[in-house]
UniProtKB/TrEMBL annotation, chain A:
Subcellular locations according to the entry: Cell membrane
Gene Ontology biological process terms, A to Z: amino acid transport
Domain of life: Bacteria
Family: Belongs to the binding-protein-dependent transport system permease family.
Name this protein carries in UniProt: Amino acid ABC transporter permease
Lineage of producing organism: Bacteria, Bacillati, Bacillota, Clostridia, Lachnospirales
Family matches, as NCBIfam families: HEQRo_perm_3TM
CDD domains: TM_PBP2
GO molecular function: transmembrane transporter activity
Major place of residence: membrane
SUPFAM superfamilies: MetI-like (SSF161098)
GO terms for cellular component: ATP-binding cassette (ABC) transporter complex
InterPro entries (UniProt xref): AA_ABC_transptr_permease_3TM, ArtM/GltK/GlnP/TcyL/YhdX-like, MetI-like, MetI-like_sf
Organism of provenance: Anaerocolumna cellulosilytica
Automatic annotation (TrEMBL), chain B:
Protein source organism: Anaerocolumna cellulosilytica
Domain of life according to the entry: Bacteria
Annotated CDD domains: TM_PBP2
PANTHER family: GLUTAMINE TRANSPORT SYSTEM PERMEASE PROTEIN GLNP, MEMBRANE COMPONENT OF AMINO ACID ABC TRANSPORTER
GO cellular component: ATP-binding cassette (ABC) transporter complex
Membrane topology listed for this record: Multi-pass membrane protein
Protein name, as recorded: Glutamine ABC transporter permease
NCBIfam families: HEQRo_perm_3TM
TM annotation in the entry: 28-50, 62-82, 88-108, 161-179, 191-211
Annotated compartments: Cell membrane
A GO BP annotation: amino acid transport
Alphabetical list of Pfam families matching this protein: BPD_transp_1
Keywords: Amino-acid transport, Cell membrane, Membrane, Transmembrane, Transmembrane helix, Transport
Amino acid sequence: MSDILSRNNLLFMLDGLKLTVFLSIATILLSMCFGTLFAIIRTYAKGNLLPLAKITGAYIEFFRCTPNILWIFFFRFIIPGNVIAKEIFAFTLFTSAIMAEIIRGGLNGIPKGQFEAAASQGFSFPRTMLYLILPQTYKQIIPSVLSQMITVIKDTAYLKAVDIAELSRNTDIVMGKAVTATEIMSLFALLAAIYFVICFILSVSVRTYQKKVMATG
Amino acid sequence: MSKLFDARRWLRLIGDFDQFLLGMKTTLLVALFGLLIALGLGLILGILSCVKLYGFRIITRIFVEFFQNTPLVVQVFFYSFGLPFLGIRLPGFMVGVVGVGLYHAAYISEVIRSGIEAVEKGQVEAATSQGFPYIQTMRYIILPQSLKVILPPLTNQAMNLVKNTSVLAMIAGMDIMYYAKSWAGNNGFFYQGYLTAGLLYFLLCFPLARLTARLENKARQLPAVTPLRIMEVDS
């Protein structure tokens, strides 16, 4: 029992956790950037740029209706190169579509008057976005982004299928050394507990934030 | 790119398409039974998390938080590799059904709870004052009113449930993802295998996505109750 939860095994799992956290943060940050871009295109592209909005819309709808694991496998084999970089790309491709929808929801919640005010002050479109619209949008969507972060952290567990040394894969390797049911169960409990602590903290902050916003209006 | 447009590979895919259809059948059945579990259990838990008895509320809270804040992959691996150590062996199909069923029951429970909470307190008081017992108050007054609020996130959950059945590929669960992965791997035709799988999932999920959007628009036009924000109860 104490063997399986030895210092070395725990450190090995901790290494996996570091990679899990790194992959999640990288995915969320990249998806925020691309998601913002796609959401702006889908919401505001008019006239000559309308086809661009249509293409973006198609990309978003298609990826929202497919499982993340599919892209994890797909990019593992399709392109050569570093597997971690490939998987961050796969995750970002998938998560950006979802993030774009979240951000679009936020953009649609911004009152029209904001744009009119910006136009009357002579703000160009990029500046209107950067200084007025996006800050208000981001503030509104914090809970949804945090929820998405939980999803991304949980989804990184899929990566053990493509041999990335994240938390679940490293735990699997430790499980390979386990013999008794007690050892296996304690490893499962530890694995679930690690994910739980991180995700639970995030989900509590989602609720706290929502309550705070509701209270202040 | 030439691999993507290689006609020979696509023809092979058409020849082997029966494998994908087998996977489709498993995915559909797992999704269907999983949805039944998720809806049934989710409804019970959702109602229990609104009752006055503190014990029930605690139990549902623990269930919801545990299943929502741990990866589905870990849960499914526990059913297929952990449970045999306790002498319980579930066939792959059951692992899928129980896996997505319990996982989404937690989400659906939250949807139901927010839906019930969205209906004004005065409604319950009015019903109680008219002598309605609790079950009937729920059945005839609260749930019908919250239905319009509950439906969009519910169809959204159904879509996520279909997508999440793909976790079966990790444990040789004979679903679309599993067949796509093995067919693509055996032939080395990755574009053909995975894009076809993507298309099949799209065909299953897109109607549900459209339905969600339509129901959301309908719910927005309701004055009585505040619509739930889909994205915040997403998985």
